[in-house]
């Protein structure tokens, strides 16, 4: 479990380099770039913010998109608060580490103790590496050159998808993922940045509702027989 948590922390933490380079390329200073990783610490929101700025968007628009993407962490917190049951004095500090990766590792554990260890190891390793590689990326941005040519802004999402794909074991899980992709990509051209991600979250209840209807229909057919 510790090995798995460290693996996630190291794999995702290294993509902070891509954020550092992208952020510096979008015009943010070294201090601003590092402050985003230290204080915001949610990769998707950080990439959304600097991506919007690089595309010429205003600060308010960029911040709004990052905010919408970060909303999902609040829902993670609701689930993790029950699972981890941390002391009240620790919760404000633990909230900083409530992100996709720590949630995934924690929920995969069989016991509360294992979930707490997974959360701690993943959060600590990822926070340290993400901030270190952000600094290195920002410092080395000039040497990299044109960040758009390298496509480094896609590194973070690509890493997360690589971690997520092996977890899609059932047909229902794959259906949720497929519908979420369709909703997210389909609405991307017509909705503000960040909103398509929130709408894509509706894929889970929609698929579960359809699955339940299918089970109920099969049950009715069996009873008629």
TrEMBL record:
Location in the cell: Cell membrane
Membrane topology listed for this record: Multi-pass membrane protein
Matches recorded under InterPro entries: Brnchd-chn_aa_trnsp_permease
Key words of the record: Cell membrane, Membrane, Transmembrane, Transmembrane helix, Transport
Bilayer-crossing regions: 47-71, 117-138, 150-168
Classification via Pfam families: AzlC
Homology family: Belongs to the AzlC family.
Full protein name: AzlC family ABC transporter permease
Species this protein is from: Streptomyces erythrogriseus
Organism placement in taxonomy: Bacteria, Bacillati, Actinomycetota, Actinomycetes, Kitasatosporales
């Amino acid at each position: 479990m510790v090995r798995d948590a460290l693996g996630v922390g190291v794999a995702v933490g290294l993509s902070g380099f891509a954020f550092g380079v992208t952020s510096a390329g979008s015009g943010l200073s070294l201090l601003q770039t590092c402050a985003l990783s230290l204080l915001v610490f949610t990769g998707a929101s950080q990439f959304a913010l600097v991506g919007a700025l690089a595309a010429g968007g205003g600060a308010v628009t960029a911040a709004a998109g990052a905010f919408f993407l970060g909303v999902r962490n609040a829902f993670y917190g609701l689930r993790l608060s029950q699972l981890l049951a941390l002391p009240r004095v620790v919760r404000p500090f633990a909230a900083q580490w409530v992100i996709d990766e720590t949630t995934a590792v924690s929920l995969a554990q069989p016991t509360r103790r294992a979930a707490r260890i997974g959360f701690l190891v993943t959060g600590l390793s990822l926070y340290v590496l993400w901030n270190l590689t952000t600094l290195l990326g920002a410092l080395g941005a000039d040497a990299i050159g044109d960040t758009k040519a390298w496509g480094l802004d896609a590194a973070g999402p690509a890493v997360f998808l690589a971690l997520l794909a092996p977890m899609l074991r059932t047909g229902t899980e794959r259906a949720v993922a497929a519908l979420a992709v369709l909703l997210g990509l389909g609405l991307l051209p017509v909705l503000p940045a960040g909103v398509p991600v929130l709408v894509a979250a509706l894929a889970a209840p929609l698929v579960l509702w359809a699955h339940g209807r299918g089970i109920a229909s099969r049950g009715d057919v069996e009873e008629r027989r």
